[in-house]
Amino acid sequence: MKNRVWINLTMAILVAGLFFAVSCAKKTIVSDATAIEDQAKIEADKNAAKAKAEAQARANAQAREDADRIAQQELEDRIANEKALRQAKIMAAKKRFENQNIHFEYDSSQLSPMAKTVLKEKAAWLKANYSVSVTIEGHCDDRGTTEYNLSLGERRAAAAKAYLVNLGVSASRLNTVSYGEEQPEDFGKTEDAYRKNRRAHFAID
Which residues does the UniProt record annotate as the domain OmpA-like (predicted)? Predict the structure, then answer.
């Protein structure tokens, strides 16, 4: 009888121990699975954060590249505009030089105060553009003989040249020619037309 009791008691203890062991094993398996899931989530979060950081870095790099490109384009545009403006000023000054004549009194090659002012401007332009050579053309109105007007035109061109040389322009850059009455600026027969034709014109060679 006692043996049976001990056997039953032993069996109960073994069953309880086995149940406890199985229960602990289940808990261990569940804990391990949870730990694996947690680790996987941590890794996924890390990878997501890394991908986000890399994407942000690429976006920042692209933004800097775009900003640099825009800044470079703006710089190039500004340089081009400044160059165009300088070129326009150069062309305007050149056009003014060529289009601005000096005028003389009737039958005279003497330079007026106004003519000297214009010649000073031309001398400054010639000094700034030292590679330019100029032909000074002497012109007259149609009163007087052809021969006389050719001579008068030459004296007018020579007077303008001498004044420019006196202002520091090299004589080797200044040529002279007389057209006398052959190339009038105004074909009229009025005093105003005659005044326009009594001139020295400056042609860039």
Answer: 91-205
What is the reported pLDDT for 100? 95
Residue closest to 189 by CA, chosen among 139, 140, 141: 141
pTM for the model: 0.65
Helix 113-128 to helix 146-166 angle, to the nearest 10 degrees?
60
Cα 81 from Cα 177, distance rounded (Å): 40
pLDDT, greater one: 34 or 171 = 171
As a whole number of angstroms, the distance between CA 124 and CA 91 comes to 15
pLDDT band at 18 (very low <50, low <70, confident <90, very high): low
Helix axes 113-128, 2-99, angle to 10 degrees: 140
Query: Which residue, among 24, 26, 27, has the nearest Cα to 16 in the 3D structure?
Result: 24
184 confidence band (pLDDT: 50, 70, 90): very high
Predicted pLDDT of residue 144: 94
Using a 10 angstrom Cβ sphere, with 0-12 exposed, 13-18 middle and 19 or more buried, the burial of residue 88 is exposed
Beta-strand pair 102-103/134-139: unpaired
85, HSE (Cβ side, Cα atoms, 13 Å): 6
**What's the CATH code, domain 103-204?**
3.30.1330.60
Q: Name the token pair of 169.
A: 């322009």
Would you kindly state where each structural domain of the chain is located, as residue ranges?
36-99, 103-204
